[in-house]
Amino acid sequence: MSSTKDVEISCRAFVKLQLHLAKYPHCAVNGLLLARQFKKENKVLEIVDVIPLFHQCLQLLPMLEIALAHVDAHCHVNDLWIAGYYEAAEHLNASTVTSLFAEKIADKILENNTGCRLVMVDNKKVATPESLCFYDKISGKWQKQAQDKIRFEAGCFETLQDLLEHRVHKDLVDFDNHLCDISLHWLNHPVNHLIVM
Amino acid sequence: MAVSWEEARDKLRELRDSNVRDGESVVDLGERLVRKYSSKLGDELWLVCEQVFIAALDVDRDDVADMCLEKLSSNFPKSSRVMKLQGMMLESQGCADEAEELYKTILAQDPTNAAVRKRLIALSKWRNWKNPGATIKMLTEYLEVFMADNDAWLELADLYIAQMDYDRAAYCMEELILSNSFNHLYHQRYAEIKYSKGGKENKELARQYFAQAVKLSNNCNMRALYGLLMTCTSLCGKVSQSEDSKNKQYATWAAKMIAEKYNNTWVQDKDVSLDGKKNVTPSKDVPQLMASVQQSLSLLNLQDGVA
Amino acid sequence: MSHPLKKVAIIVGLACIVHAGFSAAQHRSFVRLTEQEFSSLPLDIVVQSILGLFLASYGILMVSGDFKNIQVNADMKEKSFETVGNRFAFCTFEHRGKALYSRQ
């Protein structure tokens, strides 16, 4: 794969990522992007879902490895693959340049998932489509992908506004929440239902 | 969804005692309480005011913050605790220099005021966010004086973790474990740090501390259980034969405990009807979720077979 | 048992003890006046004082609030870094909430 594929982000993926950012506005957060299994004729990378992972001490590895094992198992069952890793810094003005840790994790994911992306969040533009900066590994370096190569499903912005107004972000569950109370599931079925409605 | 003032007060008290940082909810509940029912709250009003004030700064509601601060400063005109809140107001408006000056004048009168010294550190944390070294230096100086401040040690550990300086972070956790040897959270965090550092010795240490955290928490701490499983599986094949069989034994035990916990919770959830407000997993998804848990557990256990 | 009843238990218990004390003193003076040899207190006084002791201590235990667990880490079990990790002393306000809430 020499040229970078365009990215298409589904409403569910976009909204869940932004809700995770909104639930913990004072924390650095990270998570995973999931895409449907590659087919040859696919011209674009379709991101269909997002798994919010952590909001505390992102740089600790044990629980991240557990989360990856869980998400891997989920992907196997549902014909998905881990297509990316996203990270948002704590500080409002933090740059969208890839962080050392994000690169390390994305490289690790890349070993088993060719074509995986790295997404850095621009905190100043949170809750808008422009807040997501995609990076692709080209000739050994993470390089930023042009914003016009990234498309969002129609209506995702309106859905997000609606859900934020109804405080749905309070109900979003990330892997940290799941580890505190395992009755809450990181697949966020209740939130998924709301997004479809 | 009209909440009576008693309910709002109790909810705020609960949030305050459990240390939850949820600005939106606190402002929602507290604004009406402070505006209309301040006479009914008695002395608790001042605690509520402080709580709502900080929450209002978090969610950018200057009107609410002003109201709370006014009430507090008219009642306690010379209190350094209220002056600290004024400094926080300046911080949230982005006036770092003015806030710093204010904090320094408070400290000139009362050099042992730990809360204000911590504000100076927090101020440096957002002002020097590109250069955490400066904040770390201030924090270590603070800890030389206030050695028993658990929060400060945790903060320092977090700063080091963010830098991926696992050795120094581990040192902070060691200090905390020394002074709170019954706290399973500190053991768990220490083990996580040691595991992140990598290497056989560190992983063996991590296994011990995860195991201790499991024990101290009465098998309740999921992170510790998972951590025990992870460290044991990743140590398999790298140590002597006798150690190996022990590791396998621990890993199997941890996997069993985890599977049991999922079984208990999700089967229970099935009985609870969905009209409860709690955000539970829909029962129709439970079999699939259980399957994915089982699979990820076997995935983790398989690692030793491969290694 | 409701709260006022527990207080009544304390009062009745203390009254029992005081009454038993007076009875004992009266018994001693009665023994002295009738010039008998003092051997022991009558059984009803002993029973009354023991009953009063138990009643009063039960009432006090019930009124003074709930028991705390004897284990040091008992209240730690429910906690996690979810709340312990929030350190208000070090909170900062320059976070993405600023961008988020100003737009809403």
Automatic annotation (TrEMBL), chain A:
Xref: CDD domains: MPN_UPF0172
Domain MPN, first and last residues per copy: 7-140
Domain of life of the organism encoding this protein: Eukaryota
Record-linked PROSITE patterns: MPN
Summary of subunit composition and partner proteins: Component of the ER membrane protein complex (EMC). EMC8 and EMC9 are mutually exclusive subunits of the EMC complex.
Family per similarity comment: Belongs to the EMC8/EMC9 family.
Listed name of the protein: MPN domain-containing protein
Organism: Clavelina lepadiformis (Light-bulb sea squirt)
Automatic annotation (TrEMBL), chain B:
Membrane-related topology note: Peripheral membrane protein
Keyword Endoplasmic reticulum (UniProt): yes
Domain of life of the source: Eukaryota
UniProt keyword annotations, A-Z: Endoplasmic reticulum, Membrane, Repeat, TPR repeat
Keyword Kinase annotated: no
Chief subcellular location: endoplasmic reticulum
Domain EMC2 TPR-like, chain residue ranges per copy: 80-194
Location within or outside the cell: Endoplasmic reticulum membrane
Membership in a protein family: Belongs to the EMC2 family.
Protein function: Part of the endoplasmic reticulum membrane protein complex (EMC) that enables the energy-independent insertion into endoplasmic reticulum membranes of newly synthesized membrane proteins.
Subunit structure: Component of the ER membrane protein complex (EMC).
Name under which the protein is recorded: ER membrane protein complex subunit 2
TrEMBL record, chain C:
PANTHER family: ER MEMBRANE PROTEIN COMPLEX SUBUNIT 5, PTHR21181
Organism: Clavelina lepadiformis
InterPro entries linked: MMgT
TM region positions: 41-61
Subcellular location: Endoplasmic reticulum membrane; Golgi apparatus membrane; Early endosome membrane
The entry's keywords: Endoplasmic reticulum, Endosome, Golgi apparatus, Magnesium, Membrane, Transmembrane, Transmembrane helix, Transport
Function, as annotated: Part of the endoplasmic reticulum membrane protein complex (EMC) that enables the energy-independent insertion into endoplasmic reticulum membranes of newly synthesized membrane proteins. May be involved in Mg(2+) transport.
Topology of the protein relative to the lipid bilayer: Multi-pass membrane protein
Protein name: Membrane magnesium transporter
